[in-house]
Amino acid sequence: MWALIAVTTVLLLTAAYDVVQRRNSILRNFPVIGHLRFLLEGVGPELRQYIVTSNDEERPFSRDQREWVYGSAHGTGGYIGFGTDNELEQSSNYVIVKHAAFPLPRPAADQDAVPCAKVLGAARGRARAFRPESVVNVSAMSFGSLSAHAIEAIDRGCAAAGCLHNVGEGGLSPYHCHGADLVYQIGTGYFGCRTPDGRFDLGRLVDLVAANPIRAIEIKLSQGAKPGLGGVLSAPKVSPEIAAIRGIPAGVACVSPSAHTAFSDVDSMLDVVEAIAAATGLPVGIKSAVGEQAFWNDLVTAMADGSRGVDFVTVDGGEGGSGAAPMTFCDHVALPFKLAVSRVYRTFAEAGLQDRVVFIGSGKCGLPDTAALALVLGCDLVNVAREAMMAIGCIQAQRCQSGHCPAGVATQSAWLSRGLDPDLKAHDLESYLRALRHELLQLGHACGVEHPALITPEQVEILDGHFATATVADLFGYPPGWGLPPLADRAALHDLMARDLDRQPAGTR
Ligand SMILES: Cc1cc2nc3c(=O)[nH]c(=O)nc-3n(C[C@H](O)[C@H](O)[C@H](O)COP(=O)(O)O)c2cc1C
Ligand code: SF4
Question: Whose CA is nearest to atom 1 of ligand 2?
């Protein structure tokens, strides 16, 4: 009897503590029972010695990758003991960064300033051109797809880390307005900037830009997880508030058209790009997954005379994420990131236009090795979506489309999203973003260069699992100079980074 009372008391006290604490969303949403998850996770390494999967088997993100994100978000990551548990020589598609014999000094522990090598919008003389402060920024994810608390945490985290926050195709909500500079995304639904019958309304966009800290406009053509299909917000997630923001009925799935109505080919698309840039002064770019090559050839041809053009191109890999997408499209439509970005970069570079465009990469680019490779392949910036979600508590349960996200990230349930504390999670996101930049900086210094964008395609090799290896330059056919920032920007970067190096205490240099 006493034992029963004691157990019940302990359980009740634990439940009360779990509900009241703010640190952990899973425990807050699933008092008592949530501890089981952490217990199992805690004994995972021992269990995995006998059964279950290795640290590299889970997908989309392996356990090691998630551990890196969680550890960096909580300020405890980065170091492992005993050495790698990867089978280096038997792994295919395995990235090896070749360090310099005489590296640069290790960056100070708090050094994480890694600005963009190019000035966004400068090549086309946009009135509000600017140099993004951070090479890592948060990718498009809408309020609707994510909860209000998640969006607020991301916005605060971006503001603290000096990153851009892309609002996603669902329009601007009050939760996006907590201090971060924004990239406004225009999808085929034109949410936030549409006429009552769903067409693009430039006047409304201009008003939005005037009233909010929007720094760039991204026209979304497609997304790696569902290219050729419009965005989908499943019915359980269309709350009355989201319905009001988007101008659609509540409780009914919101399916955006597959294609834009404001333009229908490269020519008319560039007209829209120039009209938006002229009306707002902002840099304007496109986001696309990579399918047919003809589009990229046409774009480069249309930009060749310099009279019109996009300021940036965001290339989304076929392995990219989504709140909801058909499995066939996730698995089989659009090229994976490395192939996709190298093809797009090549198309611009062969026309000599690569210096006039800022390339942004997304598709599992939120880890130090994948982000570094994206920069080596010619990206100037990387965008992170699911890695940012993990930093604010996502456990990769992969139920985002259901509305029942246990971590309060991808849900509109008031109870579940209550578990996600925006203040604490903003701090976690900031910590992750800073850690990623710091590690990129470390990789650059190990290769003897001040900035990770200066690592050359010759300095990275990819192992094929059978003792053969090739440099990125050879594998992707990059001649010397490709993948690197323009010469003038390299000089500016040298000055910017030198300032940070000077800041280091003498003992650490
Ligand atoms: C929950 C969720 C919502 C997303 N919403 C959008 C969106 O509104 N617009 C868009 O262009 N991409 C959207 N994406 C795609 C991401 O912006 C990103 O391109 C993709 O997930 C690849 O980045 P990652 O591998 O870092 O997740 C979404 C992804 C997720 C996971
Ligand atoms: S915890 Fe699961 S449902 Fe929630 S955001 Fe992450 S993957 Fe989606």
Answer: 394
Give the residue, out of 59, 389, 392, with the most ligand 2 atoms within 8 A of its beta carbon, to mutate for a pocket test: 389
In ligand 2, which atom is closest to the CA atom of 393? 1
Strands 381-384 and 358-362: parallel
Residues paired with 288 in a beta bridge: 315
What is the structure's pLDDT at 26? 84
User: Which pTM does this prediction carry?
Assistant: 0.93
- Ligand nearest the Cα atom of residue 402: 2
pLDDT-derived band of residue 480, with 50, 70 and 90 as boundaries?
A: very high
Whether 409 has a pLDDT exceeding 90, the answer reads yes
At position 506, the amino acid (one-letter code) is A
Task: Identify the residue with better confidence: 87 or 301.
Answer: 301
* DSSP run (H or E) holding 328: helix 327-332
The preferred substitution site among 164, 223, 229 for testing ligand 1, maximizing ligand atoms within 8 Å of CB, is: 223
> Ligand 1: does its nearest atom lie under 6 Å from the Cβ of 147?
no
Please indicate whether residue 349, judged by its CB atom, sits closer than 6 Å to ligand 1: no
Instruction: Please state, in angstroms and rounded to a whole number, the distance separating the CA atoms of residues 144 and 275.
Output: 29
| Ligand 1 atom nearest to CA at 363 | 25
Report the C-alpha gap between 277 and 307 in whole angstroms. 13
Ligand 1 neighbourhood includes 144 CB (under 6 angstroms): no
Q: How many residues does the chain have?
A: 509
Q: Kindly compute the dihedral angle of the four CA atoms of residues 170, 172, 173, 177, in this order, to the nearest 10 degrees.
A: 140
Say which DSSP state 31 is in. Answer: T
What are the tens digits of pLDDT across the range 239-275? 899 998 888 888 998 889 999 999 999 999 999 999 9
Structural domains in the chain, CATH included, are 2-80 (no CATH), 136-440 (3.20.20.70)
Q: What is the DSSP letter of 319?
A: T
> What does the buried/exposed string (b/e) look like for 266-300 if buried means 16 or more CB atoms within 10 Å of the residue's CB?
beebbebbbebbeebebbbbbbbbbbeeebbebbb
Ligand 1 center from residue 186 Cα (angstroms): 14
CB 19 within 8 A of CB 28: yes
CA distance 72 to 58: 19
